[in-house]
């Protein structure tokens, strides 16, 4: 076992320095890196995670961004704020050893974050209101089948996100109670928990989480507060933001995505002239669902990068490119699903079910580790694989581009099949949407590819992303399935007795190490 000591860019003092590790002249040598820093003591590097969230609000069942030093970190990753102090061993490769670069924490709450949060609330509420109005409209028109399915989509998705939100609150409550009992801290008032649970039960769980995020964000900017207190508010802000975005992500794809496909399907089936109010309501429903999907993806991606000081933050000018990329990706996919369903009805579920099974097996092969219990892990994988019916989600660290290539290859083969069969066998030959629908799908495909390439080429926070990666079997397998170079964690964060005191400022937590973030 070889031990490596860090050198500092500005002398021997660990303060205000970027850590550089001296690379031994070895190839494929397993190395355990240890170092000393002021305020940290003698620390052996743990599995680096996002240490910006209080332990009393984290749990083994949370999804944490697991950053390893020599992997292209998941840019499209999925995580819920947590701490993982599990010790890891890292494999150093002589030709692939980047210096770990800690970005200055720039995840400060700005006024455009306030506008962004308020916009997310408005889009969420507008989406729910228009869906309810569509249900009322269908029942008034005595179209009970359409109204019933529309209502069921809203109810089922709300029930799932409600249970998920309550489950997270239960975890947070027990962790907070345990922490406050041990350290004689103040427990969150019961009326606050009551309001959280009440809002969650009334389908407003994401809203109350966004409001808490905005509250802590504004408090973190209060110059009247001490610096240490503002840092704690910032930690709470990042935690609330990450959880609210993840909850909205699930809500959007469990409700907005099926709702969008269903409303397009109804519009094709009815093909009747409607009054201005009905058309306006339909257009509002379609646009709100579509925007909600893209906004949830953008919000979560932004919050995930903000939660990790090792990752450069998204610039304001990069947001439109990411938004249009995601907007065109889910838009083209849902159009293909709706078009095929309008011609072949229930046969569309055969394609989607097959896709769901393939992706579910793929996620299980990746050995994700978001939950301590195996059953919860598999159920979470099933929910995530449902989201991946419509777009790509990265579920683990490592090289992502091979997973992206495989996923998009599968998706666009399915899209081409559904679009071609609809265009050839539809009963709506000659209808205005027959040719235009085909053209719109092709345009959305071009926009998806173009804006994704432009984003990663010019506007990605991580600069100089390599165009080519190694094509050896180990790299490809580790990218598409399980990373065989790293063992599975054997203990949960809750079981770790050496967890740091999370009531200290951000700097008191274990420093994180990571490689470049690329796709």
TrEMBL record:
Compartmental location: Cell membrane; Membrane
Superkingdom of this protein's organism: Eukaryota
Annotated GO biological process: apoptotic process involved in development; engulfment of apoptotic cell; phosphatidylserine exposure on apoptotic cell surface
Ranges where the record places region Disordered: 491-519
Pfam families: XK-related
Organism: Biomphalaria glabrata
InterPro entries: XK-rel, XK-related_scramblase
Skewed-composition ranges (Polar residues): 498-519
Positions of transmembrane segments: 109-129, 149-170, 191-211, 277-298, 319-340, 346-367, 402-423, 435-458
Name of this protein: XK-related protein
Keywords of this entry: Cell membrane, Membrane, Transmembrane, Transmembrane helix
Protein family membership: Belongs to the XK family.
PANTHER family given in the database record: XK-RELATED PROTEIN
Gene Ontology cellular-component terms listed: plasma membrane
Membrane topology field: Multi-pass membrane protein
């Amino acid at each position: 076992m070889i031990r490596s000591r860090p050198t500092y860019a500005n002398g021997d003092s660990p303060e205000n320095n970027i850590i550089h590790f001296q690379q031994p002249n070895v190839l494929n040598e397993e190395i355990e890196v240890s170092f000393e820093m002021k305020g940290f003591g003698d620390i052996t590097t743990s599995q680096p995670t996002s240490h910006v969230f209080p332990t009393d609000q984290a749990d083994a069942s949370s999804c944490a961004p697991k950053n390893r030093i020599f992997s292209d970190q998941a840019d499209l990753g999925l995580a819920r704020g947590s701490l993982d102090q599990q010790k890891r061993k890292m494999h150093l490769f002589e030709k692939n050893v980047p210096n770990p670069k800690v970005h200055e924490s720039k995840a400060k709450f700005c006024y455009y974050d306030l506008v962004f949060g308020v916009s997310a609330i408005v889009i969420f509420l507008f989406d729910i209101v228009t869906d309810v109005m569509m249900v009322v409209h269908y029942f008034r028109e005595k179209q009970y089948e359409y109204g019933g399915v529309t209502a069921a989509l809203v109810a089922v998705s709300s029930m799932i996100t409600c249970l998920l939100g309550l489950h997270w609150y239960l975890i947070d409550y027990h962790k907070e109670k345990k922490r406050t009992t041990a350290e004689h801290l103040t427990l969150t008032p019961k009326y606050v928990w009551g309001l959280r649970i009440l809002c969650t039960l009334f389908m407003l769980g994401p809203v109350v989480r966004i409001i808490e995020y905005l509250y802590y964000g504004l408090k973190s900017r209060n110059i009247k507060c001490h610096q240490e207190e503002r840092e704690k508010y910032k930690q709470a802000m990042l935690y609330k933001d990450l959880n609210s975005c993840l909850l909205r992500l699930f809500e959007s794809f469990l409700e907005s995505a099926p709702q969008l496909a269903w409303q397009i399907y109804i519009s094709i089936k009815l093909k009747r002239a409607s009054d201005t109010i009905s058309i306006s309501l339909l257009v509002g429903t379609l646009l709100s669902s579509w925007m909600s999907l893209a906004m949830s993806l953008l919000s979560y991606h932004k919050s995930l990068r903000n939660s990790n000081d090792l990752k450069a933050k998204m610039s304001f000018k990069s947001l439109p490119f990411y938004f249009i990329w995601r907007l065109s990706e889910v838009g083209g996919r849902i159009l293909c699903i709706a078009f095929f369903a309008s011609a072949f009805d229930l046969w569309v579920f055969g394609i989607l079910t097959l896709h769901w099974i393939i992706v579910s097996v793929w996620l299980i092969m990746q050995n994700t580790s978001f939950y301590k219990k195996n059953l919860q892990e598999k159920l979470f994988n099933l929910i995530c694989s449902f989201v991946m019916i419509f777009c790509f989600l990265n579920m683990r660290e490592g090289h992502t581009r091979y997973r992206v290539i495989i996923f998009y290859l599968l998706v666009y083969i399915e899209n081409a099949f559904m679009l071609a069969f609809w265009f050839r066998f539809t009963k709506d030959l000659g209808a205005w949407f027959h040719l235009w629908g085909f053209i719109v799908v092709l345009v959305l495909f071009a926009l998806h590819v173009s804006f994704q390439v432009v984003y990663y080429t010019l506007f990605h926070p991580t600069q100089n992303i390599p165009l080519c990666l190694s094509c050896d079997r180990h790299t490809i397998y580790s990218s598409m399935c399980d990373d065989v170079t790293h063992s599975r964690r054997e203990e949960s964060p809750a079981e770790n007795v050496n967890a740091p005191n999370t009531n200290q400022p951000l700097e008191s937590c274990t420093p994180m190490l990571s490689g470049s973030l690329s796709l």
